[in-house]
Amino acid sequence: MAELDVGRHCQVERCRRLDFLPFVCDGCSGVFCLEHRSRESHSCPEVTVINERPESDPRASHPCSFRGCAERGLVPLMCPYCEKNFCLRHRHQSDHECEKLEIPKPRMAATQKLVKDIIDSKTGETSKRRKGAKNSETAAKVALMKLKMHAAGDKSLPQTERVYFQVFLPKGGKEKRRAMFFCRGWSIGRATDCAASLASLKNDNNRPTAKKLRLCHSVSGEALPLDHILETWIAKEDCPLYNGGNIILEYLSDEEQFLKNVDSYLE
């Protein structure tokens, strides 16, 4: 005669209760009574594994809001315009495609005209300007070979992506200039942050009311717009930046769009 199914005993040693409708745990596959059916009540190994998982580092609790970026920061870097937090790489408006980024087109046109007037006044006639530009390009090529030997920058950048500059540092500091290289695909703002870090300069560019560090053209003195890409200035036909040429780093207020006494930096 076949043995009747009269249930099964709970696997908890201190219980061993016979249950006609036992509960099978989906975590450890053990058999338990109604009282010990929860994972916590029968000390399920699955619970132990979950509890022993390391918690996320509380020091890095500021995630980047840029889509697809998984970086987290030790300190918050809030965009003063859209008021969202971003990592160092996406802190500037152009780098995180800020929803409140505004491009003042009329002012930009006026600025370009002013730059052209300044360049024309310094270089004279058109033929002389072209000759001066050619000389600047030649001088930059010669300087580039020297800069490559001792320039500072992100060593992980491929050689094909690097652009080299003799960076003239803000007045009043102990150091007058330093050779640096940046990525040609970086925004001007990111290159400015990199230069400040390499020269150990105070950088309050994320504070709306503070004076900002700006990279300025060594001929016109124009403060390069932070959201422009470095490569676009290298590819310009009129008054470009040269790979191996000079560039000036200085503190300017939001109202200042040009650097005064450019020649005094280069003397």
From TrEMBL:
Q: Does the keyword Metal-binding apply?
A: yes
Q: Where is the AN1-type domain?
A: 4-52, 58-106
Q: Does the keyword Zinc apply?
A: yes
One cellular component GO annotation, for this chain's record?
cytoplasmic stress granule
A GO biological process this protein is involved in?
stress granule disassembly
In its UniProt record, a GO molecular function of this protein is: zinc ion binding
* Keyword annotations from UniProtKB, A to Z: Metal-binding, Zinc, Zinc-finger
Q: Record's Pfam families?
A: UBL_ZFAND1, zf-AN1
- Return the InterPro entries for the record: AN1-like_Znf, UBL_ZFAND1-like, Znf_AN1
Matching SUPFAM superfamilies: AN1-like Zinc finger (SSF118310)
Q: Which PROSITE patterns match?
A: ZF_AN1
Reading the lineage from the top rank, the first entry is Eukaryota
Q: Provide the protein name.
A: AN1-type domain-containing protein
Q: Which organism is the protein's source?
A: Ovis ammon polii
